[in-house]
Amino acid sequence: MQSPMLQNFAQTPIQDRMSNHGVKIAKVMMQPGQDLLARAGSMIAYTGLIDFNPNPPQIASMVRSWASGEGVPLMIATGQGELYLADYGKDVVIMQLTGEALSVNGKNILAFDQSLQWNIERVKGVSMLSGMGMFNVVIRGNGWVALTSKGTPAVLDTREAPTYVDTDALVAFTEGLSVQPKRTARFGGLIGRGSGEAFQLGFSGQGFVVVQPSEDARPTFAARG
Predict the structure, then answer these.
(1) What is the pLDDT of residues 59-71, one digit of tens each?
(2) How many CB atoms lie within 10 A of CB 128?
(3) Measured on CA atoms in the order 139, 92, 224, 176, is the torsion positive or negative?
């Protein structure tokens, strides 16, 4: 059977470890010994022999202290085949790290290679913002990462000029950038949207920032005193 539907949405050819299947699905080529950490419940389909272990003991302590405030349950996927992941219709951004580090909002993590190192860390340069520290998830090493975005994201090159981002729209940024908080009055507060106070983060240096075209109702970062 030939049709535009089959042409646009049929299975994509086998290529990289991770790739996009459309804009809202991540396709992962699973092989023995190349385990994957993924958001629990994000599997929508797979081919082959793949097993899932939600909240395995080796990451349970990290999950309990995850920086998003409400927790981000993870599972380990193992086996061989093609794995398809999604998160409630959000756009999916695929990145390959080659020795870099990426600081990510925990709510925007879909999956990443288990071989990557990861930890919850304070965002440098914003130890005090509205009286509290701010935390993010930092992923380091060589491997693949899949992030989600509420709509088509923008990737901003911070080498060109200092870049300012609404904290509620921030998805991820290159670790090592100079980060400075900025506080302004938001016009929306004058017409009933919020208190009129807003925080932005300013980024500069060699790297990039990923933002989504939708502000979360909840804070992007967890705040701890």
Answers:
(1) 655 555 554 444 5
(2) 10
(3) positive
